[in-house]
Amino acid sequence: MHRKFMFLCIIALVLSCPASAFCSEGVLVKRVVDGDTVVLSDGERVRLIGIDTPEMHESNKLYRDARRTRRDVEAIKRSGKESYLFTKGLLEGKRVRLEFDVERRDRYGRLLAYVFLEDGTMANARIIEEGFAQVYTFPPNVKYTDELLRLERQARQRGRGLWKEGP
Fold this sequence. Notes:
Blueprint: H1 2-16, E1 23-34, E2 37-40, E3 45-48, E4 51-52, H2 60-69, H3 73-91, E5 95-99, E6 111-117, H4 123-129, E7 134-135, H5 145-158
Parallel strand pairs: 3-6
Antiparallel strand pairs: 1-2, 1-5, 2-3, 4-7, 5-6
Helix pairs in contact: 4-5
């Protein structure tokens, strides 16, 4: 009986929540911070779920990534700048819809979201598809992982963005 009551309470809560509890429509991207983080017009920071772009500034993560990938720090920073510029062109000044997964915020207080352009394009997927990010899964936020992995494989095969040959 207790389980059934809890289940009904959860269903009632979900049904009573406005759509904005799961999705936020028509919000403006004021500024792109880097390839996977944006700031909305209300000042809220949003981390794009499922992707990780190279660092473009000095940080502990930059040096960890350099050790892990055996890539030159300056090369990683150049890739980070390319990812930033791509995301900036894709999202800055645009109205978007945010879709949330299981967790709403990360440990830094940023919103975690899949970001959709007005035409329905998922920005997270587009950034991966063009090769400007790698798939970065952080359970339990894994709703679109299979699709993102498929797009990353294609970007690698086609030598796009981070996966292109040469300097």
